[in-house]
Structure formats: C-alpha cells, structure tokens
Amino acid sequence: MTVKKPDPRKLKERLKSTKERTKSSRAWLERQLNDPYVRAAKSQGYRSRAAYKLMEMDDKHRFLKRGQSAVDLGAAPGGWTQVLVERLGEGRVVGVDLQEMEPIKGAVLMHLDFMSAAAPDLIKKALAGPVDSVLSDMASPATGHRETDHLRVMALCETALEFAIEVLKPGGTFLCKVLRGGTERALLETLKKRFAKVVHVKPPASRADSAEMYVLATGFR
Fold first, then answer.
1. Do residues 99 and 18 touch, judged by C-beta distance below 8 A?
2. What is the dihedral of CA 115, 135, 171, 123, to 10 degrees?
3. Can you tell me whether residue 1 is helix, strand or coil?
4. Angle, vertex CA 110, rays to CA 104 and CA 116, nearest 5
5. What's this model's pTM, rounded to 2 decimal places?
6. Which residues contact 146 (CB under 8 A, 6 or more apart)?
7. What pLDDT digit, counting tens, does each position of 124-155 carry?
8. What is the mean pLDDT of the segment spanning 58-81?
9. Which is nearest to 61 in space by CA: 156, 143, 135, 150?
10. DSSP label of 129
11. Catalytic residues
12. Of 50, 53, 95, 189, which has the fewest beta carbons less than 10 angstroms from its beta carbon?
C-alpha cells in the first residue's frame, strides 16, 4: 500500500480565539491546525500523524509483508498499530503502551509499562511465539535538556532491542526511535552484529525541526 501523501498546499488557518492561551500553546495549536499530516490523519481515519511515518518508512524500505507478525511498543494512541494491521493482516499485531487505548480491530492491545520487570514475559505470552518485527516509537517526557532527553530515549531503545533479540524470528526487523546524533556506538555495534543491515531513517512525516529519527535493522541473525 502506497502512502497517499497529504497536500501541504492549503490556505493557512489561524485560531479563532487566542484568549487565555500562552504563546507556546498558541504556536503548537496553530502548527497542528495547519499540519497536512494531522489533517490527513483525521480525514483518513488514523489516530495520529505518526501513522504516516511508518507508512513512508515501509514504502521506501519494504520491511512489512502480508502475513507477518509484529509487536508495536509505545503504541498509543494507535496510529502505527492501525498501519500494521492494514499491512500485515488481522490477528498479527500486538500493541503495547502505558496509556490505555481504544480497541483496534484485528490487534491485541496491552495496557502495561514496557519498562517494568514483568512486561517482557506478559508480552511474550500474548505473542505466542517468535515475531517478524519489533517496532518501538517509545519516548520519555522531554526535559528540554538535550543530553538528558537523548539518554532517556536511548535507554528505551536499548531495552526494546534486548526484547527484540529474545522474540524475533531469523531474518526479522527491528525499528526504533532515536534522537538526532543517531545511535550510540555500543548499541550500533550490537545491531550490526545481530542484523544484516542497519540504517538511520528520517521519514518526511517527521517534522524537520524535530530531533527524532529512527534506526532500522533488518535481517536478524
């Protein structure tokens, strides 16, 4: 399935009322109002603009195949899970998040903290066997301190990779959010040892001013 790209050539809209809003709040709301991916998500039934990030990455790198299975870590509100069900098929996807999510037809949703000690075993039981892909769009609350935020996101990525190594099928895929500056050396070395190909990806739907990017590792061994 090829992404139907949002049309950015729309007249810019402004908030009807800016009373009782901070400057940063107004700026964020105006950006949301005029974001073509936000508009497209609403019109096409996706729960978040993030759905287009996954679609764009898969359209370019072709790592999702019909009939495969996947676990989506940090799934809320469910945009990636929706795309996975569309591309892999119903009954092939498990979505996990600390936040509760409205049901998604064809997916198993788990409300739990992935970083808790009990989480990996609970997810493994839901998977009922090895999977083809482990995807993580997990992020920790931003502190505004670049180095601290980077370390927190990398800790999530490292934990997700440990889990992926335990549950992936041979030839499987690992996709994880990192921050600008890429993947730390030790983690990158592990990825290169365990996967045939490792690349960094920043899909068009990822805002240009965002520090986020993704590490995509394929061909698990």
1. no
2. 40
3. coil
4. 155
5. 0.83
6. 211
7. 999 989 999 999 999 876 777 777 777 888 89
8. 97
9. 135
10. S
11. 177
12. 189
Question: 3-state DSSP call for residue 57?
Answer: helix
Complete DSSP assignment for 147-185: HHHHHHHHHHHHHHHHHHHHHEEEEEEEEEEEETT-S-H
> What is the side-by-side strand order in the sheet with 212-220?
107-111, 93-97, 70-73, 131-136, 168-179, 212-220, 195-201
User: What is the tens place of the pLDDT at every residue in 40-51?
Assistant: 888 898 999 999
Interatomic CA distance for residues 66 and 128, integer angstroms: 19
Token couple for 197: 């190909």
13: phi > 0 → left, psi -120 to 50 → alpha, else beta; which? beta
Find out whether 149 and 85 touch, Cβ atoms under 8 Å.
Answer: no
Two structure tokens written together for 124: 């493994």
